[in-house]
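One-letter codes give the sequence; the integers encode the fold. A sample entry reads:
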Amino acid sequence: MTRKVTEVTDLKNDCRSATSWQRVTAAFHTWRTRRHEHAPPSGDTGSPAPEPAPGTNTLWRMRTTVKDEPGSLAALCTALAGQRVDILSLQTHPLAEGTVDEFLLRAPGELPASGIATAVRTAGGTDTWIERADAHDLVDAPTRILGLAARTALDAAELPLALRQLLGRCTIRSQPAPAGGGRASDGVPVEGAFDDTVMRLRVPEGGVITVERPYLPFTPTEFARARALVELDARLGPRVPHGRDVLTLAEGSDITVRRADTRDLEAAKAMHERCSDRTLRLRYHGPVDDADRYLNHLLSPRFGRTLAVQTASGRLVGLGHLLWDGDETEVAVIVEDAWQRRGVGGELLGRLVAMAAEGGCRSVYAVTQASNTGMVAAMRGLGLPLDYQVEEGTLVITARLGESVSTGAGELGSASAP
């Protein structure tokens, strides 16, 4: 199941209603509502810090709003110094009234977030937000932003991840342009717009990227940075990494695994035509005649990454999708019937999960039918902790990602990466 299926409301201009789709969608949203909350991070002001070890220090990220007048920042720094808090870095975000100051702090391990927030409030800071930081936050902002720009330049599918790393914990959704060449702008100006905790950015093919961060309002500085990344992506046009792996199956056949995009649309449709109705139903959970209509969405780098499997003759025989679903990540796989039960699906799934881990995702989920024993076995074959949720025949399997994830290439045989 994919965002194209699970978020039918976003795609009402593309898709006609189907009872089976609605049942699956309703079940999925019931599951998601139970587990998905837009709540502030647990490390916000007032949350107790973990039990510190004697003599250790703790890194904190903090934002607070101060008056735009001489001495306001000095008073804040003096208050922090009184608590033996070091300021490692400082960024300022000018507002129409006042300034949002963003700090990276190193504080004594025994000093809780509430103690820092009290000192800041006493010094005149308002709307203070604080959370635990780690060593990755020690990279200065210009270096981090340049790194995100480089990743986006190499791979169009990196844009949603780059925005998430740029803006912190947030929900990012891409809405495609309506069918028929229309534009899904919904009144969003060409330069984009933001209002408090919601940011909307136009993309060149007519869609809109919406970023939501309920616990922390966006600043004009953050909006300008996000817009610059989107403009870079638009100028560079379609692009995917050119690397590919050639693998040898147990019976001696060679297959190639590579990245795919919308330029593979016709080959993907041809694969659908060779798939049985059962295979299509297990993958898309609905009318098989509708399957082709989702391919353009699935292959778009706006919504995630796609891996393709092709034979030595160049025929496409399998697709694996890693889809950015708001602040969660979905995996989905389809292999045409003649190539099933050879380890191809497990290979695709392992590589997708490895890409998710590399992108900083903490978990991935797959939506399937309880009768799809092949997908269940492939998820178990990852060797990761799994959670299962069943709603009206729809099975949602969530894998929690650990330190290392195997790509599963060893199950197929030898591999080379020309």
